[in-house]
Amino acid sequence: MNQNIELKKIYDKTFKKKNRVRETDEFKEVLKMDKWKGKHILDVGCGTGRLAYMIAKKGGKVKGIDYSTTAIKTAQSKYNHPNLSYEKVDVSKNISGKYDIIISIGTLEHMDKPYSMLKKFKNHLEPKGKIILTSPNWTNARGFILMTLQMLFDAPITLADLHYFTPVDFMRWAKKLELKLSWKTIEYSWGNGDKMIDDLKNRLPKIFKDIKLGVKQKNINLFLKWINQKVVPVIQSSEENGAIGIYVLSKKK
Questions:
Q1: Is the predicted pLDDT of residue 183 greater than 50, yes or no?
Q2: What would the CATH number be for the domain defined by 3-136?
Q3: Most-buried pick from 52, 120, 225, 238 (CB within 10 A)?
Q4: Could you tell me which of 169, 82, 89 has the C-alpha nearest to residue 124?
């Protein structure tokens, strides 16, 4: 079964309810990855077009593609710019043209065959081109907790992720594709701090209900109190433990 077909239904439903707005910090970090002006850019999974619009304003010539009809219609009505165009495309079947930069923000973890997709991206790069990606990162306290539940109890820890990547995956792919990799992580509070605690307060009761594990709310509260008081204060932010990974795969010169 092509799981991306099911994801399309989720995305269309989500976009009809409200626009998908990604974290501002994530966009800011992606914008730091290049000067953009005069570059030809493909935004794969552009959603409602916010980041594509920000890049177009910086002088990039951007084509945004997405397989959600609702997202593309929203992008066309909300984020217009002379340097920007949108198209409804199933990226697993069709990409055309060559680009200086291909970006894909928070989409690779939803794709049936992520390595095959990266290989396709590489084939559509100009000789000095690069791929810029973001993906949830699981090498942090939040990741260890949720992945334990996912791996040991088959718990549904996210709505639509098909894969749970760490930097190790991107290192392996870069080597196979003969691309140079640089990476960093951001959103440390989501991975290890206050935002993580708030997220787990909401997420854990739902997970335990879904897998019928019968964990009492008072035990969840005790666990989160222990994490907050005795783990969070001593976790040091580092390049590998933020909640979002940013990866740049460049053609070797």
A1: yes
A2: 3.40.50.150
A3: 52
A4: 89
